[in-house]
Structure formats: C-alpha cells, structure tokens
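Morning run. Coffee first, then this:
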Amino acid sequence: MTPLRRWMEAVHIVAAGLWAGVVIATGAAAAIIFPTVRGLEPTVGTYPNYSGEHWRLLAGQVAARLFAVGDIVQFICAMLTGVSLAIIALQRDAWASRTIILARLTVYAAVLMLVAYAVLVLGHRMNTNLAEYWAAAKIGDNQTAASARQAFQKDHGPASAVMGSTAAGVFVLTVLGVVGATSRPAAASASPPLQAPPRLETPDLARRASR
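And here it is:
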C-alpha cells in the first residue's frame, strides 16, 4: 500500500465514521427532546395567540437548530469521505481487491442519492412548511398553522426512514473502508522456479579406475 493510499484510507474511515455518528446522534437527540419537552407542558411567551400545542413549537425549534448543525458536519464529512475514496480508487493497488472497491463506490453513490433526496426534496418541503407553521402560529393564525403542521407531519415518516437508511449506508461504508484498508490480496500462485538438476557424483569405483 502506497503512503498516499494509507493516509487517504485513514481520512476516509474517520470521516465516514464521524458521518455515521452524527446522523445517529442527531436522530437520537431529537427522539429525546420531543417527549421531554412534551412532558413539561410549556407555554411559549412569544406565541401568545397560538392555541395549539406549544411544546411542539419549542421542541421543534430546538431540534431544527440541532439538525442544522448536524447537516453542516455531515456535509463536511461527506465531502472528505468522497474525495478520499476517489483518490483511493485512483490507486492501482486498491483494485487488487476489486469486489471491495466496487462495493465501496456503490454504497457511497447510494448514500449520496439518499442525501440528495433528503435535502433537495424532503428537506426543502419540510422547511417550507415548518417556517409557515411558525410564522402563522406567531401571529395567531391557528388554522394556517395547523394546516402547515399537518403538511410537515406527512413528510416526517419518510424523512425518518431516509435518515435511518443513510445511517445504515454510511455505517456499511465505514466497515467496507476498514476491510479495504486492512485486507491483503492473495498472492498469485506461481510455478516454482526451475532448478538445475543435482550434480551426480562420480562413483567411487570409477574415480579409482581413472587414476
């Protein structure tokens, strides 16, 4: 393994592992925030005319900031993971384990498609509905707020499924990275080199006769 590939393998594994950790951690944090805030039954002073559940407003705004920070970290990790994997794939010795490198490239491409769908489709639509929900709640337009919240909730299930699939995909990518970095291709079986036949010694009786 070349020194460049060794460094890129290290960057790839660390970035992919951190990426998976951030996805799992943000999902777990959101799962804790919402029931905790709900149990406190808060009333948010900046939404005095909103008649709906104030705990959703409070927990949602906390979780939104958490996901925003997580998205930034994920973006950095995704870029490092992809760039390092591209450099690895350009190394000749990486293709000694052809199945592993192809699996790594395939999984990374699949995860990128999931992230693109989450950001460009689900994320855009959910953020639009969320902003409308908060704005309507703040001015006391309870009907519009309820409608926007329901539209947001429709995408919550698919978004959770995409997040879970992304975490699983990045975890697999991390494992494949460890396997690819530590595996040693089997040495090609080669025929043993031809050896000169052993030198036959002259029989003792023939040596005496020649004297």
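The CA atoms of residues 110 and 169 lie 8 Å apart. Good start to the day.
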